[in-house]
Every structure is written in structure tokens, then in C-alpha cells.
Design a protein that fits this description.
The chain is about 50% helix and about 20% strand. With about 200 residues, it is α/β, with parallel strands linked by helices. It has a five-stranded mixed β-sheet with strand order 2-1-3-4-5, sandwiched between helices. Strand 1 (about 25-35), helix 2 (about 45-55) and strand 2 form a beta-alpha-beta unit. Helix 2 (about 45-55) crosses helix 5, helix 2 crosses helix 6 (about 170-185) and helix 6 runs antiparallel to helix 7. The longest helix has 19 residues, at about 1-20. The protein is globular.
């Protein structure tokens, strides 16, 4: 009887904890728009988004939708791969991905400096929260971490003490994401060569 009471009490406590637990936020990160269409920075459209996915995945408070799922939906809907043309398109994509929040934005460079404009869209309410971050191309990974921290704060989530491990080689990152761009454009042989070069520089790829 005593054991039965303990089991019942434990079940009640666990059930109560489950009911009171906040649901995880599902987030999709869209590609960032290259405002000046600078070809040498084309890789950052996918690069910023993909690196943010890695950083945001460091938190146990959110579920981040993988890039492959985003590509599939964009292809099916025949939407732009480097930034959506309207908020309406973004909301449509968010709903198809079952995301509660969308992260998107744009970037513009001036010399060695780069400014990233961030938009966090709440799919249910339509509310848009904006933010900006600036940094240098030389410290692009620090800028990326700064953007991730801003997103966590704007979404009311704790910033992870440590982000998931990723490359520290700008050259490897540029090769890899340029490879993704070329792959999307059907330049398979060039893309595969760039993937190999990126992996040689950093096995994380």
C-alpha cells in the first residue's frame, strides 16, 4: 500500500510538471538577403542562416528546423532561396514548416564592416521584432554569435553558456557555403570540389 501511494504521488508530480512546462518554441531560420548583391559575399546568405541554426540548436528550449526542410518547402512553393519577397510568403513558409517563429533578415557591407538586420516573426500573431548587429568580416563568427544571443534575448530565452562546436576557418566556411550555392544552381562538379576543399581545411565539414 505504501509503495502504491508513492507511485501515485510520483505520477501526480510528474504530470503536474508536464502540464506546467512551457512548450518548446519551434524556429525556422530563413536565408539572409544580400542587399547590395555583392557576388563575393553571396555565400553569406546561406552561411549566416546555417551558422545561426548551429548556434540556436545549442539551446534545449527550442526546436530548430533543419536547412534541408527549408530548402524542400521553398522549392515546392517556388519561392526565392535567398530571402522571401514578402512577410506573407514568410508566414506561409513558417506554417508549412510548423514553425512558431521565423528568423530572417539581410546584410550589407561597407569596406570590411558588415551590418546584419534581423527580423523575428511570430507566425501566430504576425508580430515582427527587429534588431541589428555590426561586425567585421575578419570576425564573422563573433558577429554570428552576437546575432544568436540577440535572438535568444528577443525571444525571451536564456542564452546558452556555450554554443555548439563549429568551424573557426572563414576560408573553409566560404568554400562550403559557396558550394551550396553552386549546388543549388546545378553546378554539381564545382560544388563537390568546394566541399572537398572545405573538408580538407576543416573536418567539421
Amino acid at each position: 500500500m505504501k509503495l502504491l501511494k508513492i507511485c501515485i504521488l510520483t505520477a501526480i508530480i510528474l504530470n503536474s510538471a508536464a502540464l506546467n512546462a512551457k512548450p518548446l518554441k519551434t524556429v525556422s531560420v530563413l536565408y539572409f538577403t544580400n542587399l547590395r548583391n555583392i557576388q563575393s559575399l553571396k555565400w553569406l546568405s546561406k552561411g549566416i542562416a546555417d551558422m545561426l541554426i548551429t548556434d540556436l540548436s545549442s539551446s534545449s528550449k527550442i526546436i530548430v528546423i533543419e536547412r534541408e526542410q527549408l530548402d524542400k518547402i521553398l522549392n515546392e512553393q517556388k519561392l526565392s532561396m535567398t530571402g522571401l519577397t514578402s512577410q506573407r510568403d514568410a508566414v506561409v513558409v513558417g506554417k508549412l514548416l510548423n514553425a512558431k517563429h521565423l528568423v530572417t533578415g539581410s546584410f550589407i557591407s561597407s569596406g570590411r564592416q558588415i551590418r546584419v538586420n534581423i527580423k523575428i516573426i511570430n507566425i501566430e500573431s504576425g508580430k515582427i521584432t527587429g534588431a541589428k548587429a555590426m561586425g567585421s568580416m575578419h570576425n564573422i563568427f563573433s558577429l554570428q554569435n552576437k546575432i544568436a544571443k540577440i535572438i535568444f534575448i528577443k525571444m525571451g530565452l536564456p542564452v546558452p553558456k556555450k554554443f555548439n562546436k563549429e568551424t573557426k576557418s572563414i576560408k573553409a566556411a566560404k568554400l562550403y557555403y559557396t558550394g551550396l550555392v553552386n549546388l543549388d544552381e546545378g553546378k554539381v562538379a564545382i560544388a563537390m570540389k568546394q566541399f572537398t576543399q572545405a573538408t580538407t581545411l576543416d573536418p567539421l565539414y
